[in-house]
Design goal:
Blueprint lengths: L1 E3 L4 E6 L2 E5 L1 H5 L4 E10 L3 E11 L2 H9 L10 E13 L2 E13 L7 E13 L4 E12 L9 E10 L2 E9 L16 E10 L1
Antiparallel strand pairs: 1-12, 2-3, 3-4, 4-5, 5-6, 6-7, 7-8, 8-9, 9-10, 10-11, 11-12
Amino acid sequence: MVIGILTPLGYGVHERVTVFTHPILDLLLTPNVWLRLDLWSNDAWAVALDAGYQQSFLSVAAADASGDPGDHADYPGYLQAGVAGSFAVRMLQVTLATGYEGRFSGRDDLSDVFLYYRVGLDLLADERNLVMMRLVGDVGLNQGSFEIPTVTLLYCREFGRGRLGVGLAAGSFPVDGMPADFDVWPVYPWFDYWWRF
């Protein structure tokens, strides 16, 4: 089992099946669940199938709180299904993942279809120190769009069952309610602490 401040709760319900959810998002009226099915693995290689769902009902609560019958509540979210593979080269573990992502902005319409891709590099300096890099991006299939990927670079340190991660993330991050010049933060600090049981 894994749980952290920003890291989702992960629980192995079977030796090959792991379920993930983020409790903080659940509390913010954004139910989410991911499943991972390990297809094959050995000391150097691993292949798994991933599927996930996330949807936000925050606008429903905001519309109900406003009391204005003209307020329209959408339920934006997405569905994902794909494959992930990882392999080790000495002290470096490489993870590659890709798959389908369908985003919906209304009550029942799939408005955008994407091919998502993820790249992960984990460099194990020693038994307690790890350097991680994550790259996450999307390519729009029905609109031909290419979104700027998000890149995260972290240093992680193990403290018994706990792990501390600090670093930087770079990418495009829209922030609602800010002036137009501040709608994108190109770089921001990243921090997390998680536990493995």
